[in-house]
Structures are given as structure tokens and as C-alpha cells.
Write a structure and sequence with these properties.
alpha+beta; 5 helices; globular; ABC_transp_ATP-bind
Amino acid sequence: MSVQSQVLNLMKDLQEEFGLTYLFIAHDLGVVKHISDRIGVMYLGNMMEVASKKDLYAEPLHPYSQALMSAVPKSHPSEKKADRIILKGDIPNPSNPPSGCVFHTRCPKAMDHCKVDIPAFREVRKDRYVACHLYNDERGQ
């Protein structure tokens, strides 16, 4: 772990010194939080949400982002622990993804049209982008 920390700290130092931008892909949300300014959350190769680190960790909007963030350990005992969201079902085969929203088979908030309609990926708040019918349903939401 100390080698990983040293490499990440070196990357941050180089980023600040030279104004670098990284495309950093990882599953370790602690590392992602440390290294990132903006974060994109992907599921089955599809972008589900893009937000600043601060916004995403404070209030994830997409149901998949909410499930991911509920699993992040809190760094201080005084921080309020969110209820853990356990996703049901198996991850679909990426080479044969489900129709509609690719997350609908595991989404606790899925609606009937999620099975058919692919949600648009668009800005739902300033600099917050989400692909979810909960936020961009043209049927009245």
C-alpha cells in the first residue's frame, strides 16, 4: 500500500506542477476520491453519471452511483453512514446487454419504460450529467 500511496502522491504533485489531466480508471473508490477532481461512473461500459468529486461523494444522483457510494467506508467516525444499498441480481453479460437502460435489471428504482427506452445522458444540474429516467424522463418527470 505504501508504494501505491507514493505513486498516487507523485501523480498529484505532477498534476499540480504541470497542470496535467489524467484519465484514471479504477474500482477503488478511495483512490478515485484521492486522485480525481471530476468523476465518471460507468456500468457495463456506459456512462451513468459525471460530476465533481465533491458533488458525487456528497449526493450521488444515479441509482448505480448511490449504490457504489453507499459502500465507501467513512473516513471519520463522526461522518453519517449512509444505508448500504445491496444490488440484487447478477451483472448482465456486457456482450449482450439488456435493452433500454443497461442498469434496469439491478436498479431498485427501475420503472417499466427503463426496460425499453435508453435514457439520455444530459445535464440535470449545473455540471451534473446523468443517464437516468428518474431525472430526464420526457414523460413528465
